[in-house]
């Protein structure tokens, strides 16, 4: 294993780029917390590393493109993952077919009882062939709670708030079309309704914004 450079330092992990057995790879190393008892810290980080690997494997199994897992180093709590040569969706012009596929991927996870936990354009990568990959399952969890699925949609909506309103609304609408194609309109509306309730609890939402947030599903 050869780590060449740091790509990102987060509160929970450090992301490196490097090589594994001659293949270009991403290394995701969970960071120790100095305020925790060392044995407890080791136990927590190992469990979270293995859980993330479990969700990546299950996502692949149900048809969601994710980077392949090359190796799991339990000693350093590091996941060694396939390097996806591409750009994040945030760096693209967000074509409809890509945004729709994003919605399909999240619906697939939800239909199999998995909430991703951090649905945003930076966690979707488009490679040079136009294939879409979903990354970063560090906050994923097993659940059947509709509000957990609604939270995924709300997190995605909030991640688009810096965009122009017309661009944002088009993206979320196309995303939900893809979601509905997989989960069905009734399920999609239920998840959207949960997302709307979550958003309403967070701050005041005007009547017009509430109407916009259901994306005309009520009229179908």
TrEMBL record:
EC number: 2.7.11.1
Entry annotated with the keyword Amino-acid biosynthesis: no
Keywords tagged on the record: ATP-binding, Kinase, Nucleotide-binding, Serine/threonine-protein kinase, Transferase, tRNA processing
One Pfam family matching this protein: ABC1
First-level EC class: transferase
InterPro entries registered for this protein in UniProt: ABC1_dom, Bud32, Kinase-like_dom_sf, Prot_kinase_dom
Annotated GO MF terms: ATP binding; protein serine/threonine kinase activity
Chain coiled-coil ranges: none
Catalytic activity entry: L-seryl-[protein] + ATP = O-phospho-L-seryl-[protein] + ADP + H(+); L-threonyl-[protein] + ATP = O-phospho-L-threonyl-[protein] + ADP + H(+)
Start and end residues of each Protein kinase domain: 1-220
GO cellular component term, pick one: cytosol
GO biological-process terms attached to the record: tRNA processing
Key word Nucleotide-binding present: yes
Subunit structure: Component of the KEOPS complex that consists of Kae1, Bud32, Cgi121 and Pcc1; the whole complex dimerizes.
NCBIfam families in alphabetical order: arch_bud32 (TIGR03724), PRK14879.1-1 (NF011460), PRK14879.1-4 (NF011463)
Entry similarity comment: Belongs to the protein kinase superfamily. BUD32 family.
Protein name in UniProt: non-specific serine/threonine protein kinase
Organism in which the protein naturally occurs: Sulfuracidifex tepidarius
